[in-house]
Amino acid sequence: MLRIITDQGEARQELQRISERTYHENIETQSATVREIIATVKKNGDRALLEYTEKFDGQVIPPEKLKVSGSEIDAAYQQISPDLLQAIKLAATKIEAFHQQRTPKSWVQFAEDNVVLGRRYTPVDRAGLYVPGGRASYPSTVLMNAIPAKVAQVPRIVMVTPPSEGGKINPAVLVAASEAGVTEIYRVGGAQAVAALAYGTETIPRVDVITGPGNIYVTLAKKEVYGRVGIDSLAGPSEVLIIADSQANPVHVAVDLLAQAEHDPMAAAILVTDSELLAQQVQAEVDQQLENHPRRTLTEKAIAHYGVIILTKNLTEAAELSNLFAPEHLELEVESPWDLLEHIRHAGAIFLGNSSPEAVGDYLAGPNHTLPTSGAARYASALGVETFMKYSSIIEYSPSALQKVSKAIIDLTIAEGLPSHGNSVKYRTK
Amino acid sequence: MLRIITDQGEARQELQRISERTYHENIETQSATVREIIATVKKNGDRALLEYTEKFDGQVIPPEKLKVSGSEIDAAYQQISPDLLQAIKLAATKIEAFHQQRTPKSWVQFAEDNVVLGRRYTPVDRAGLYVPGGRASYPSTVLMNAIPAKVAQVPRIVMVTPPSEGGKINPAVLVAASEAGVTEIYRVGGAQAVAALAYGTETIPRVDVITGPGNIYVTLAKKEVYGRVGIDSLAGPSEVLIIADSQANPVHVAVDLLAQAEHDPMAAAILVTDSELLAQQVQAEVDQQLENHPRRTLTEKAIAHYGVIILTKNLTEAAELSNLFAPEHLELEVESPWDLLEHIRHAGAIFLGNSSPEAVGDYLAGPNHTLPTSGAARYASALGVETFMKYSSIIEYSPSALQKVSKAIIDLTIAEGLPSHGNSVKYRTK
């Protein structure tokens, strides 16, 4: 049963505990394992990938099967239902349409004395996309990661995903990859797949950016190779914080909390409300909806450990608690969500009103569902087209413009003790 | 003496060696030290900071002196020359003017069925700025890191920098901080300062983003705390790649190479040219300019280890080598720099023509001088206003819009085995 907290000090402590739930005790050991895996892949290439796949995934993959063939992708289209194919296509269309908007564009500014300044945006050469296997093998993950890379016009979009029984890959994932513009798919997962993307092997090309969620080993591997390649973020378990008032429907609030909890035993589901009645109704409703839940054990675990209802005096106080937590997903199921929005400073995605359940954003509203977790919304944003682009600053000075600033530059170079910096201007001016 | 390489295979190998020069042998030991320092600061707060400052910087700082006082900043204004003050002010004005352009703006899109989608940009609450001490204590670093945070309207801009002899801080750095809008300054450096910014101590507030260059311990500490806070990048030693043709002035090319080399014995200075004559002239000119160079030993070391001239058949080939290296700074000292620009895919900042030495961008042209190093320009950009901002995705659906997509969402939730996701839509629609 969801606890109801009324004490604000206790509420803050509880939010901090939940926010930090990703920090494991044995992270050092896991990091050491990951470093060893990366070093081995660097040294042994494909052979290491196949050995780790046998060891960790229990699958023996012949070297020539590492890359998923075109005929396997064609076959996947036959293995999913026409309804699912249509849903994937609809989602892909809506996600692409949203991501096409306000993409970074190069610009220059012509200033006085023939000075030109600006930014020149270009895509990365190669993007690497990690897609988990097993319980979290989701076609929506593929769409949300690959489509921004496609919109960014990345020439090679490389996907890796671990094989399941018989070396198979979820056909819905293969179809989503094909629809989203993935250019090549490899049958490998875990830290070894991240290592392959960062350093390249005989078969898998080295990429420039690695995105996508994964288990703790995948996340630690991404942190380890960060700097060698770019990464989207260090994704932790998912979370929702719902701010609701007395007009909210307790059945809807409860199902939204459970939609988060059913992801993962470490998922967090938090309700903050100024209505004691709603708090009690949601508490009861969550229990009821859990009764016959197909993923009851896992979902109940998340609710028990990382679920909570916080009762506040008013909605402004609720917004402040939310800012403290900086949730991945924030739902505003209140009478005037746009007014309350003014009080929100940090959240990955904000769902306004009673008809905007998180699921609409998870699948097809358009904005990306890959969002900052564990308080990272304090400083980070959703994955986007920007993740796969970067810019070069552009600077063109003229002889007369350089002349005008030469004294100031030389004074600064003297202060910093960098004589050739000064001379590079002095030699070009009088 | 700068070597001249003509073999393209050798050139590629050499560029790779130079690009990877940051990867040390003893990085594991240094990482362990850094993790210990961070854990100690987390546990002991200010006391740990003062102990490490005594141990690593040899300075005993009384607790009440950790924060730099207003009167110390006032005094700094008296300690620098009026010319330097004017140069700092000019640079600050020009950097701020450039960064004010095209800053991220919130937007919403009104789609059919009363759907609202968009992005809402907000600044981080607190920015942390690391400024090195000793040889690399530069006022320009302060301006380039703090001004974007100020333009982003970050309420608290916290600077840390290690004390030198007598607990002093370079007055030009204090003046630059004051001019750039830094709100508080603390006398502490190294990994311990990064730990303080990431976790907070009694005196130093926890921040949301940490930016700024530093030695290997600072860089490793930034990598370690990344995820808990945002960081700008993992800065390596500085580098320039110059593409020049026969019309370039060898004196200018040589001084620009040395301006890079004089930063650091690990700095890299690379010339790629299609002119054998220019290659020879630059080779001779570098030697001559080194003769009486005030930082000769250090600069010569950089030139010897990480300096090279590569001779190519034509400029397109030169551009391809540059793309492979993805330099932090790229100078195009060629007849038609804007034409050559079309062949460039990866570079932190690009300086076009013969009157645009890197120094103009280092100090005051306007674009940021904090740039991706060691090949990171393949996927990353300059530090900017964006570094201190993030957005929340905005999603508002109406009952009728939700109705229209409900079947597609439910089909996807079935494929992904997430029943409450499906129910969150089902319960809200017919």
From TrEMBL, chains A, B:
InterPro entries with a match to the protein in the record: Ald_DH/histidinol_DH, Histidinol_DH_CS, Histidinol_DH_monofunct, Hstdl_DH
Residues involved in substrate binding: 238, 260, 263, 329, 362, 416, 421
Residues that bind Zn(2+): 260, 263, 362, 421
UniProt gene name: hisD
Reaction equation(s) it catalyzes: L-histidinol + 2 NAD(+) + H2O = L-histidine + 2 NADH + 3 H(+)
PROSITE patterns in the cross-refs: HISOL_DEHYDROGENASE
Catalytic-site annotation from UniProt: 328-329
Cellular component terms per the entry's GO annotation: cytosol
Keywords: Amino-acid biosynthesis, Histidine biosynthesis, Metal-binding, NAD, Oxidoreductase, Zinc
Segments traversing the membrane: none
EC id: 1.1.1.23
Single annotated GO MF: zinc ion binding
A GO BP entry: L-histidine biosynthetic process
Pathway(s) this gene product operates in, as recorded in its UniProt entry: Amino-acid biosynthesis; L-histidine biosynthesis; L-histidine from 5-phospho-alpha-D-ribose 1-diphosphate: step 9/9
Family according to the record: Belongs to the histidinol dehydrogenase family.
Reported function: Catalyzes the sequential NAD-dependent oxidations of L-histidinol to L-histidinaldehyde and then to L-histidine.
Name this protein carries in UniProt: Histidinol dehydrogenase
Oxidoreductase among keywords: yes
Annotated cofactor note: Binds 1 zinc ion per subunit.
The keyword Oxidoreductase is annotated on this UniProt entry: yes
Cofactor names: Zn(2+)
